[in-house]
């Protein structure tokens, strides 16, 4: 059901086939024009729901000037191709393009990255051999093109009232939108009830690997420099007091990481820690678990509690020696 959050911002509640549940799609009215933020997964149910909820607002696809995608994940960008086919321009970050175009080279590089990553995390060869094809991760995203790309701080409306803010961490291409009155459309960067997982991605061509959790924390600190009054997210309810939640998310990240020290064992890999923390359940959600465990270990390494050691293409972790003064 669609509802207006304010006089210029409406939320559509779009169904998804994922455990995360429904996704929020936003309609922004500005200068008597409308644009859409995110669009839902590539399913007939989501498409029917999107059009029905636009009608509840007395709008239609013909009312939409452009679609702005916060990031490439299927629940946010999956049916962008349908809007593109309806002659609606699609905007997003430059790093979004590869996930929508889905070229053979991108798929090939993705498969190689997944296998190399699994090996470096200490995953047994019997499991690496059964990893799904990279195309499975794109299953709910219809291939299409991006009309225009944006970087940090660029205007998406002619008067500059709505501007982009790059918030990598959960996704490398994640762009939020900051609008009049301190409103932030945050994608999945800040959610009221849950913390987003800093997901590992194949590096952008020409770039090295960057730790998602460090990018995520930097992006949270970046938000602390803005006077935000209202944050709306890809999931959950509007956040009326975002600053305490931002501080809590930063603290929560480090606290969760340091819990590992209470049960520390030297010489374990990411796979070993994943099995230790999640057991056999890990195998049903390996990319998510790997991302979470790698994030915890990365923060321990950042704070000097542990060091990472490479042996035979596998990274393991050991406690650092405590310095006595």
Task: Write up what this structure looks like.
With 325 residues, the protein is of the alpha/beta class. The protein folds into three domains: 3-101 and 137-256, Metallo-beta-lactamase, Chain A, CATH 3.60.15; 104-133, no CATH class; 259-314, no CATH class. The chain is 32% helix and 19% strand. It contains ten helices and 13 strands. Helix 7 runs antiparallel to helix 8 (242-258), helix 8 (242-258) crosses helix 10 and helix 9 (270-278) crosses helix 10. The model has no long low-confidence stretch (mean pLDDT 95).
Furnish the topology, listing elements before pairings:
Layout: E1 3-6, E2 9-14, E3 23-30, E4 33-37, H1 44-56, E5 64-68, H2 74-77, H3 80-85, E6 90-93, H4 97-101, H5 104-120, H6 125-128, E7 148-150, E8 163-166, E9 175-179, E10 183-185, H7 212-223, E11 230-232, H8 242-258, H9 270-278, H10 286-302, E12 306-311, E13 314-319
Parallel strand pairs: 4-5, 5-6, 6-7, 10-11
Antiparallel strand pairs: 1-2, 2-3, 3-4, 8-9, 9-10, 12-13
Catalogue the unreliable spans.
Answer: none
- What would you report as the Rg, rounded to the nearest angstrom? 21 Å
The side-by-side strand order for the widest beta sheet comes to 1-2-3-4-5-6-7
CATH superfamily of the largest domain: Ribonuclease Z/Hydroxyacylglutathione hydrolase-like
The CATH class assignment of the largest domain is Alpha Beta
- The CATH topology label of the largest domain is Metallo-beta-lactamase, Chain A
Structural class: alpha/beta
Keywords:
325 residues, alpha/beta, Metallo-beta-lactamase, Chain A, seven-stranded mixed beta sheet, four-stranded mixed beta sheet, 10 helices
